[in-house]
Every structure is written in structure tokens, then in C-alpha cells.
Amino acid sequence: MNREASVTVPAPRMLLSRGTRETLSNYTYLLPAAICLGGTVLFPIFKAIHMSLYQNVLSRPQDYRFIGLGNYLRLLHDPTFWLTLKNSLVWVVFSVGFQFVLGFGVALLLNAEFKGRTFYRTLNLLPWIIPGVVVGLVWEYLYQPNYGPINDILRRVGLLRVPIAWLSEPVYAMAGVIFANIWRGIPFFSIMILAGLQAIPDEVYEAATVDGASITQRFWHVTLPMLRPIIVVATATRIIWTFNYADLIFVMTNGGPANATQITSSYTLLSAYTDLDFGYAATLSVVLLVIMLVFTACYLKFTKGVESVSG
Amino acid sequence: MDTRSRFSRRQFLKTVAATGAVSAAQLGWGEAPLLSPRKAHAASTVRFQFSVPEPLRISLVESLVDRFHKSQSDVEVKVEFVPQAQARQKLITAVSAGNPPDCCMMWDNWLGEFDGMGALEDLTGQIKSWKHYAGTTPTAWQTVTVKGKIVSFPWAITNDAIFVRTDRVKEYGLKMPYFDWTWDDFLTLAKGFTKPEKNQYGFGMRGGGTWAVLYATEFMYGNGVQVLKDDKVAINSPEAVEAFGWYVDLLRKHKVTPPSAPTDAYRQIVEGFGRGVTSMYLHNSGSIEEQKKFVGEPNFITLPIPVGPAKKRASFFFSETLTMFKAAKNKEGAWKFMTFLMDDEPHFDYCRTLGLLPTREALTKRPPYTTGVYGGFVGSFPFSIVSPYLAYAGWGGMLDSQGVPLFQQAFVGQLTPKQCLDKFAEMLTKNMA
After folding, report:
1. Stretch (H or E) spanning B112
2. Do B412 and A163 count as a contact with CB atoms less than 8 A apart?
3. In this structure, are B175 and B206 located in the same domain?
4. Would you call B413 an interface residue with chain A, using a CB distance cutoff of 8 Å?
5. CB pairs below 8 Å between A and B: how many?
6. Rounded (5°) CA angle B363-B364-B366
7. Domain span at B165
8. What does the pLDDT look like over B25-58, one tens digit per residue?
């Protein structure tokens, strides 16, 4: 009986190692998400950078040309840009600062046990639910010097003889829009911080109480550190939103009077849709992006980001 | 088993295929869907963009289009209503993308900009042989002439005049203003009307929007000012500074305007007068109908702008135009529709409903244009001129984005009248293109 000798033939060597294949297949799974992100986030950013290098006034197509950093140089010498940057700083610091402090207070109140708490928690959300444009219209009406309720109340109680044009005087206009923005933004902080407060285990407070910590000490050494990740994320998000949030200003003052309430994001809109200067508007957008990136990096570094409190 | 009424598989597949084919045809891949309302013969479509500053205009234009459809069957008009705030931007992006409507309504101060883009159809030849060409007032043609070309029909024109509450004049025992009143008369009357404790002010000054600049300039013309002199910007001349100083003082020194004047725009000045907060304001005839409802016809009149120290005065004409685009796909249909709207009855109805003035003198002889509330406007014709700010296309958007904030800075005291006008003149000079 013939017996055939069997020879083990080694499997052909694969072109790529197993590890490389796995890595590639993992990246393939990520590809759809990467394409979506690239198309919706990266492409517009690169397009804006590209547009910022051109003279591109929509109503003067014959003047369309590459001007390199021309728009950036123009921006450096544009006094309105610097004014809007200063206004943006005031707008963000006061809006977010007061929203945070008041939102924190409301969250502490809503965290306490009392009758009708669910109702008040829902009521608290109302300003946040109302669309920004509607908020702008409502507050514009409240501030209206001739038939607005604020002036009317102040006159009836004898605090005012002649109505104040809140949104027409540069001194009051910025304060007026900031106040409306504070009103709108308090629920955001209160709901975020309330969620954080509810996540703090009671045992921690009990242990602190047993150790003899007073209510103030418990707040500073337990509540605040435990809430730090939420506070960092909420304030960073809100600062970025507020910096870019032009709806309220557009509706209430349109940046006036005399650019007193013009912030950089509303100035960008004005350049794009009134002057139709898309090149310059793109430049403003790129600068805004850089400012926000630098701010976010510094802020997260300074506040140690969202790393856990025990870390 | 009776299978006569059953749907066979083959029949089902056929039905699905047929439904799919019809649906695909309905998607509008062709010029018109397959199953559209039956017409005697194929009507060509005209796209017409209409800018809407107030809701009343929507029903008005719909009724005019309806009348046009009833008058003929060759052209079907599809109206695209666009809010006024977005109209200019939408048109410019449509032109840039090579897909503008066939024709549109636009304000005359946009024409230079669109002509600069090479977007407008030159209608000079057709319009000069149009039946109503000679009967149309020459100033109306001036408002739609760019670089010697007639690019639009002046659909409606108007100029500016001062609305005055005559009932308040009597109530406060003031001297009734007259046709040739002066700046001093105006100021005296404004002071007489002003009662801050009652929330009443003499003059509803406009500080918001492009017309904040135009109205101030109209007053300045009373002091012999010109925006352009020998092709150079002269809006910062000593006479202009003096006149603008007087105008700003109405707000800052005499306080005869509401405190909100630096930001008051169209809606605020019209409503301010209608609600009794102000007793005078400067505006075009477009708000007459509204004031008839608010204040009542016997309680107000209109007067020309008062005569200034140089014994001069001016009112700026502007027009709402019907304009055709060079890239229009149906120029013949657009012409047919535009000439229909310019015929006597549709033209008169459009102007009368909106309180604007018809562009043919014969039509201004009909009521309501013969009544007192139109007196200030019709009486201003002899010294009405085309807005000097139409001279350069580059001034269009800049008046709003840069001119208005400068004037507001003067109104709130951040700039002196001279500083404001110097900066304004610099801006105009830079954009003389």
C-alpha cells in the first residue's frame, strides 16, 4: 500500500500583519464618522480660512481676487473690530458671571426639600425654553421707553419723571441686553448644577458633619470640589456660546446705538449680510475661532479640566 | 375559488412600476410636473420676487397677480415673497449663483449695486417705445436710470414730508404751521408739542436704519448743503456742519424728540406718532393710510420740509421699481407682467393701497391724491430731487453699516457734528465706486 507522504505547506504569508489589519479595520469603522465630521466641521473651517485670503464682496464680483493676509491687516486697523472685541469681553464676563452665580443659587434652592419643588423646577426652565428671538422681542418691549412696563412702573412709584430710553443710550444699552441674557441663561446653570448636586452621595455630607464641618465648610470643601467637573464644562460651554451668540443683540439693538452693543459675532453677521463682504466676514470668523481655541485651552489648563476630583 | 377580483402578482408589479414612473415625473425633473392642472395650452412661467416690508402687501400683490392671470393665459407668475430684511441679500446670492428670478420689486437705491454686478437687463430701448413712457414724470425715470441706462420701471414713487398733528396744535393753542414754514417755526412748534411729563414730544426723529442719514441730509439741504459738489464729497462743508448741529440739537439741546430717537427706526417713528407720543415726524407717504387709522384723517396734515436758513429745502424722491434680470429665463413673460402692473388701473391700485404716489401725473389728479393729507408730498414736487446717495453703487450698504453708527454717535454725543460728518465724508470718498 502506497502511503503518500504528507507535507505541511505553510500558509501564505499575509501582506499585512494581524495587528496592522486590526488597526486598519478599526479605522474603517471610524471612517463614516470621520467623513461626517470632516464634512460638517473641518471643511467649513478650511473654507472660511480660504475665503479670508480673498477679496470677496458679493456685490462686486469683478473685484474678486487673492489678497493673502490683506483682510487680516485691515482687521488690525479696524477700530470697530477692536470696539466689538471689547464689547464681547464685557458681554461674556458679565453675562456668564451673573448667570453662574444666580444659577448656582437657584440650583441650591431647588435642591432643597419643599412642597411644589417639581413645579418650580419646571418653571425655572422657562426662560431657557423660549427661543432667543422671542426673548429679544419680549425684553425690547419691556424696555420700550414710551409704552414699556419697566418705565411705566418706575414712573408710577415715583422713581422716574422722564422715561429712560434703555436701549438707546450707550450707557444703558449694553447693561440692558446683558440683563436679558442673564435672565435667559440662569436655567442652564441651575439645571446643570442641580444635576451635579444630586449626584453627590449623602454619605459624604454625613461624614463631613460627623467630623464637625459647618454648613459653610461643607459647601467649600465638599460641594464645590465635587461639582468642579460640571462647573468647568458648563462655564466653558456657556462662555463659548455667549461669545458667539448674536441673536439677542440683533433683535434688541441691532448692535446700536453707535455700535455700543456690537459684539464681534454680530459684527461678523453685519459684514456678511449687510456689506456682503464675505472675505472680511470669514476673517472675523477665523479670528473668533482662534480666540475661542486659545481661551478653551487656557481655561481647561487653568481649571485642570474635567479630571476627577480624586485625581 | 373565485379569483376574478383578485390582484395578480403581475398586475401588482405593473401598478407599482407605473406609480413609480408617475411619481418620478412629478418630482419636477422637467420644467413642469406631469400631472399639473390642465391648461388650454402651456403657459410659460415667470418668477417674481417681491420684498415684503408689511403684510398688507402680500394680499395686494396676490390680487394683482390674480388679475394678471385672468387677463391672459400665456404667462403664469410665481411670486416669491421675501421679508424685506433678507431681500437684497437673497437677490445678490441668487445673481451670484446664476439663478435670479426673472423680475423683482427692488428699491431704487439697490439698482447701482446690481448694475455694478452686471445683473440688470438694459430696458432703455423697450421702455422708450412703451405707451406710457412720455406720460411718466421725468424724475421717476431718473430714479431708475443708471449710467444712462433705464434698468427698471418706477412702480411707485414717493418723497418725504412732515406729518403734523393739527388737533394738538389747537389743543395747545399753537400757531398752525403753513406751507412755507421755516426751521424756526418748526422748532417753536416742536417745543410747544413737547410735554415730557405726559410722554409727548414734538418730533419723532429717526436714528435707526438708512433713512436716519437721509432725513438728516434732507434737513441739511435747507442750509445750501450738497452731498457732492464738482464730483467731490462735500457733506462735511461748514454749512453742513452748522445744519447738522442744529438737527442734532433737536435731540440733545432742545430735547423735543423722544429719548429713544438715536435708535428709533421706521416702526418706532410711525407708531410714536400713531400712539400720540410724537406730534410731528418726517416720512414718505407710505404711512398715510396707517395714520388715518391711528390718528384719524381730520387730525393731521402733511407739510413740506421747512425752509432752511439758505432759503432752500429739498425732499428726496425714491421709487419702488420693477426690475428684470439679465439672466432671466423668461424675459418676454417678465416684460408682459411688468407692463401689466404699470397699466393705469393696476398701477393706481398698487400706489393708492400703499399710500405711495403714481408715476404718471394724470393719475395723481385722482382722489385720494387731491386730499389734504397728501398735500405735503404733492406740494414738495417742485423741490424734490433724486437722492444724492444714489450716485455711487459703493455707497449702498455702507450707509447702513457705517453711516448709521456714525450718525448715532453724533446723536448720543460721542462725536461732535463736525467729527461725525468728517468721518462720514471720508467713508463716502473711500467708497466712490
Report:
1. helix B111-116
2. no
3. yes
4. no
5. 103
6. 75
7. 160-316+378-430
8. 554 444 444 444 444 456 799 999 998 767 788 9
